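Morning. Coffee machine broken again, so started the prediction first thing and wrote up yesterday's gels while waiting. Chain of 225 residues, entered below exactly as on the submission form.
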Amino acid sequence: MMMARMTFWKHQWQSRWPMARRTAAERLALGALLTLLTGIMLFAVVTTSANAMSGGAKPPPVLNVGGEFTLTGGDGAPVRLADFRGKTVMLFFGYTACPDICPTSLLTIKQVLATLGEEASQQVQVIFISIDPERDDAAQAHTYASYFHPDFIGLTGSVDEVAAVAKQFGARYRQEDMGSEAGYLIAHTDFIYIVDANGDTRGMVGSATPVPDIARLVSAIMAVE
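Came back before lunch.
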């Protein structure tokens, strides 16, 4: 399954930006990006799935991604990751015009909360970060997120602020011009990040991961003191 997912992502990125149309420098840069994506994926699978998803006794280790950030909430006020200390945070990067991955991923997260149950899910905060601040303002990002669940929040910031937070978490995205009035789409990674109550990232899973597996991982991370 791990190799299949790596192959899938490599195919997706290669099909979006065909190598044949690139200069040597561009092919080298794209190759490095693909290698980085594969490395991030392998790291996430090895360090999170092996313990929590299989029901291992050891708590999921802290991953080398994430960290503090401040972005803008739907009411225009700054929102910090630190504001949610004491809760487990599920974090997803996307954009409101996304045709497939984003709505599917947010529905998956909603199903995870339902699987956890009402009491446990109240200890989880879901944050959607728009990677399209040129079209999504903070109010739009929040409205979009809360459509899937009233407790989900949406954040964004300036282009540079969003890029900096995405870089912290290893999220990758790129605008893709559609050559029409539709403007552009954004090709992006689909990881769901799980941050423990102390602010440490301990989970990083693809949105296609089965809901019960994600729920087990979240439960294991919630048990970390």
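The longest strand covers residues 88-94. Going to sketch it on the whiteboard this afternoon.
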